[in-house]
C-alpha cells in the first residue's frame, strides 16, 4: 500500500521546505499538467492563457464535465462552477499550484491563506504522517489520544492522514497580489479561484487594530479581482492553540469590518471543529444573522500531541508539541460539523452555504459530505496524495 503512495508523488513535496515548494512546485502530476498547459500556449507559468488554450490542456475526464461548451450546473457562493469540488486553503501555494489544480479538474482552487504582511514559515519539517490507534484510523474530537500522543513518522500510508505545521506563512502583498491576479485569470470555464486570507496578530496590537488588519487584508484581496473570499478563523492565531473561531462575538465584529470593506463580495468563514452547539449557533447568528457572512467552510485540522516511536515530541522545536491533524482521521469530525451546521440552517431559517472539508480521500467521502448537507466539498490531504481525485469524483457521479 505504501508503495502505491510512493508512485503518486504529492504535488506539494513534504520532503522539501515550504520555500522550495513555493519556488519549484508543484510536483508530480500537477507539474505535468502545468507543462502541458504551457505547451498548449499557456505561455509563462501562472499566466492566464486563452479559454481555448485551457480546454486544449484539459484532460478527457475534465472535458466531460467542463469543456467550456456546456454551461456550469453547480455553484459556489452564487458563482456558477462545473462541480463545486476543489482544494481548500493550504497546499496550493501560488498561481502555479492553483493553475495546475484547475487543469487537473479541480473546479475550486483556494489560494493559500494570505496576510497583510510577509510572515515566516515554521521550521522544516512541516508535514508528518500520523497513525491513530483506532482500527479505522479515525481521531474523534475530545478523545484522550489527542493529549496522550498520536504516533507520527514519515511513513505515508493509505488512507492518508497527516499533520501539518506551517504557522500560516505569507508573502508580502506586493508579491501575492499580482500572483493572485494571475491565479484568478487562469481559471478555466466553470472554474473559480477562491482566495483565503486571515488577520495577523502582532505584539502590542490592540483589538481594534487586529480587527482592522482583517479588513485591510480583505481589501487587498478584493483589489486582485476576487469574486469570493474565505476568511480563516481556524488557525492558532490568538496564541498557542487558541483559535479566533472560539470567540464568535469577535468573529462577528471582524466580519462586520470586513463587510464594510468588501461590500457585496461573498464572504465565507473558515471554522475549526466547534463541539458546542450553542457556540456554533452564536457563530451563525453573529455573522450570517447580521448579513455579513454568506457561508462557512469547515473543518480545519484537529490539534493533537504528536509523538515519535519513543514517545518523545515528534516535531522539533518549542511550541510544536501539538500540531493539527488532517486527512482521513478527521473525516467523522468534519461530517459531524457539517450536519450540525445544516441542522442550524434548517432550524434558524437563515440562508448560508456550507463547504465541507476534512478527510475527503475518495468519491464516497465526497458523497457523504453532500448527504450531510454540504453545498460544496474540498480536499487538501486527499488531493495532495491523489492528483486524480477530482476526475475520480466526476466519473463517480
Ligand atoms: C499542507 C497544508 C497546509 C494548510 N494550510 C492552511 C492554511 O494556510 N489556511 C487554512 O485555512 N487551512 C490550511 N490547511 C487546512 C486545510 O484547509 C483543511 O481545512 C484541513 O487540512 C482538513 O482537510 P483535509 O482533511 O482534506 O486535509 C492546510 C492543510 C494542509 C494539508
Automatic annotation (TrEMBL):
Q: Write down the top EC class of this protein.
A: oxidoreductase
Which GO cellular component terms, listed alphabetically, does the Swiss-Prot or TrEMBL entry include? cytoplasm
The residues covered by the Dihydroorotate dehydrogenase catalytic domain are 203-395
Composition skew (Low complexity), residue ranges? 40-49
Q: Which Enzyme Commission number(s) are listed?
A: 1.3.1.14
Q: Which SUPFAM superfamilies match?
A: FMN-linked oxidoreductases (SSF51395)
Q: Has keyword Oxidoreductase?
A: yes
- Name the coenzymes or cofactors required: FMN
Where does this protein have compositionally biased stretches of type Polar residues? 50-73
Q: Name one GO biological process term.
A: pyrimidine nucleotide biosynthetic process
Under which pathway is this protein filed?
Pyrimidine metabolism; UMP biosynthesis via de novo pathway
Write out the coiled-coil annotation as residue ranges: none
Q: Which PANTHER family match?
A: DIHYDROOROTATE DEHYDROGENASE (FUMARATE), DIHYDROOROTATE DEHYDROGENASE (QUINONE), MITOCHONDRIAL-RELATED
Name assigned to this protein: Pyrd3
